[in-house]
Each structure stands twice: as structure tokens, then as C-alpha cells.
Amino acid sequence: MLTFYIIRHGQTEANRDKIVMGSKLDAPLTDEGKNNVKNVGEKLKGIKFDDFFCSDLGRTVASATIVSGVLGIDAKKTKELRELDIGEFTGWKNKDYHNRFPHYKNHLNEAFPGGESFDNLKKRAFDFIYSLEERYNDKTLLILSHVGIIRALVSYFNDFDYDEWINKRLGHEYIGKFVINKGKLVSYEQIN
To answer: How many domains are contained in the chain?
Structure first.
């Protein structure tokens, strides 16, 4: 069995300004964003993590540095935990992006122009988690990533409709605890 906690990066200037980043755009954390991840770290104190992984994008690395300072464990950066590559939609205002979004929501295997598909994001996330389960049997891990990765994992392991979870709002202080065994969910809990 593998236990992993997954958390989201703190609020960025782009999040605050309602600009879609995906994996090709980054933005610094706001003061609120720094507080988001510090609060999450404080909530996770007392849990012994055997390892810590984060996306290699700047906003997650900055968030991981803050969490590491609270928990005393360094994060390993990996590209497998990056946000969805939304290609040509990178840098758009949320409202403009969502006007074009329904087409891609209804065609999960179709890549965004110049980007990737939701199906690719899901496969990337699942493959990474499965590889962790093989290497970290009976361990507890911390993962810091993006809302797209979190939505994919929550919907998959809970057998939720992914189409609904694409638009599910998850705050910057989200904490999800998963226990899986041989790729199957044993338990899930949202803490916060």
C-alpha cells in the first residue's frame, strides 16, 4: 500500500489576475500564496513523510521551498507533475479561455492547439503515481502539484466523472490524502 498526500501550489499573481498559465507560463507567488502553502505545511506537521515530490515549474518549486521549511524535508522536482499544457490558450484571461473550453472538455483525447490533451495529463499523473507505488510500498509521500493533476487523480481514484471534475474549484490550501493498493483506492479524504 502507498499513502500519499497531495497539495496545490500557493496563489500566484496570474491566479489572482485570472490568467490561465498551464505549463508554459509561470508567475510568482503572491503574499497570500506564500501564506497558503505555509498554512498547509503547518496542517501537515506531525506526519512523517518518507519523501516529497513536486512539479518542476517555478510556482510549485517556490511553494515546495516554503513547505520544506515548515516540515524539514526537501522536495524532488519532476516534470511528470506539471500542469496541463494548454498550448495557444496560455496567457489568456480565464473568461476567454472558458468560452473556448467546452470543445476540449467534450473531447478529452484532443490536444489543445500547440499543447496536450486531458487524456495525456491523466496518463502522466497515473503513470507517475503507479511508479511511486512500486518504489515506495508501505511509505507515506507528499506531492505538491497543480489543480489539473489533482483533479485527474481525485476523479480517477474515486471513480468520479472526470468531465465534472475538470471545472471543480480546488483552493490553494487543498490537501488530499490517498491510500492505494495495487493501483486501487483504499481510502480518500479531503483535509481542510
So the answer is: 1
- Note the pTM of the prediction, 2 decimals: 0.95
Burial (Cβ within 10 Å: 0-12, 13-18, ≥19) of residue 41 = buried
Alpha helix stretches (DSSP H) within 19-141: 31-44, 58-71, 94-105, 118-135
Tell me 28's DSSP state: P
CB proximity list for 102: less than 8 A, separation 6 or greater: none
**Domain containing residue 39: CATH number:** 3.40.50.1240
Residues of the domain holding 92: 2-190
Q: Please list the pLDDT of the chain residue by residue as tens digits (192 residues).
A: 999 999 999 999 999 999 999 999 999 999 999 999 999 999 999 999 999 999 999 999 999 999 999 999 999 999 999 999 999 999 999 888 878 777 777 778 889 999 999 899 999 999 999 999 999 999 999 999 999 999 999 988 888 777 777 777 899 999 999 999 999 999 999 997
Torsion of CA 108, 81, 134, 42, to 10 degrees: -120
